[in-house]
Amino acid sequence: MTVKPASFDLDPLDRALALLESADPTPRLPELARAVGLSPSHLQRAFRKRFGVSPAEYAQSRKLKQLKSALRAAPRVADAIYDAGYGSGSRVYEKTGQLLGMTPADYKRGGTGVAIRYTTLSTALGVLLVAASARGICAVTLGDSENALVTGLRQEFPAATVERVDAGRDEWLAAMIDRVTAEIGTGASPPVVDVPIDIRASAFQWRVWQALQHIPRGQTRSYAQIAQTIGAPHAVRAVASACARNRLAIVVPCHRVIRADGSLGGYRWGIARKRALLERETSKRTSRS
Fold it and tell me: Active-site residue numbers?
């Protein structure tokens, strides 16, 4: 495929962005690099540094937006998949399930038919709500009131069936709760299971959240350090935004991200809880050393 060069009034990275927005089909990295006069490796590094994602991740996010729009408008899921530029329906279900948080068909129905079970318990940090779909954990929230947390869960998933369960009667959910509560010092056993996650996110948000999960307990990183870690040093504000959009308290430890001057910055579930979490983790780390 030959990719027509974008306007040379733009610098190479902006031309690459313009081509990803306009070219059909989406050019692969070597084709894109030739069109803007850079080597593939240099384009990959420079594009990620400026925009926070690779060219392929940007293209994937753009196609996902097109798919969401098409799912709302097209009469059939198959038509929407085709209209969004996907050639294979099976690949769409494989690749977009994690980003949509549900299958394309479920998304088209507004989440109707998705079953979410949740439970709540009291902790030293307030009320903890843990919710899961059949795919994995979809919400871990902290607050002062169970009613407020449940209301927030229903607002997040308005078309889903939301049901409270007794964690003692749901072995899988109980294991997830043990993992979360062990992190805040209220569980008797250490985390022994991986946590499957079922949330909607952009490619950039996933990269930020994955970086957060690699911050050791008892340590912190600045927003700028996380931006450096993911190869997007100029995306500090975008990193802060991704932290603010995290719906999985503790599991995705955004409380371990602070400002460059050492101040705590923001926290979706309250600065007091952020400070308490960090103090607990620091105390545990000190006692073990």
Answer: 254
